[in-house]
């Protein structure tokens, strides 16, 4: 916890959720709808392996972080 994020479900500053229990539960099961860094709406794609969400400013975040990195060079 760094205390400077936003709720991925309702987009409010962390700790300011109107229904915290709902947000916590949703964030445990559903893809986030808002970027936790800037609260912009993210493009969410559900895949067979899980989901991925992409912020126009921060790029993609998601559970598919183990995708192979392309060779550099
Ligand atoms: Zn929330
Ligand atoms: Zn962002």
TrEMBL record:
The protein's required cofactors: iron-sulfur cluster
Function: Required for the activity of the biotin synthase BioB.
InterPro entries referenced in this protein's UniProt entry, alphabetically: BsaP_C
Key words, A-Z: Biotin biosynthesis, Iron, Metal-binding
Transmembrane segments: none
Family designation: Belongs to the BsaP family.
Residue span(s) of domain Biotin synthase auxiliary protein C-terminal: 42-61
Source species: Actinoalloteichus caeruleus DSM 43889
Protein name: Biotin synthase auxiliary protein
């Amino acid at each position: 916890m760094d205390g400077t994020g936003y709720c991925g479900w309702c987009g409010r500053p962390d700790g300011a959720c109107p229904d915290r229990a709902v947000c916590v539960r949703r964030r445990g099961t559903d893809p986030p709808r808002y970027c936790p860094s800037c609260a912009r709406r993210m493009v969410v794609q559900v895949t067979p392996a899980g989901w991925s969400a992409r912020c126009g400013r921060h790029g993609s975040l998601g559970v598919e972080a183990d995708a192979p990195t392309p060779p550099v060079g």
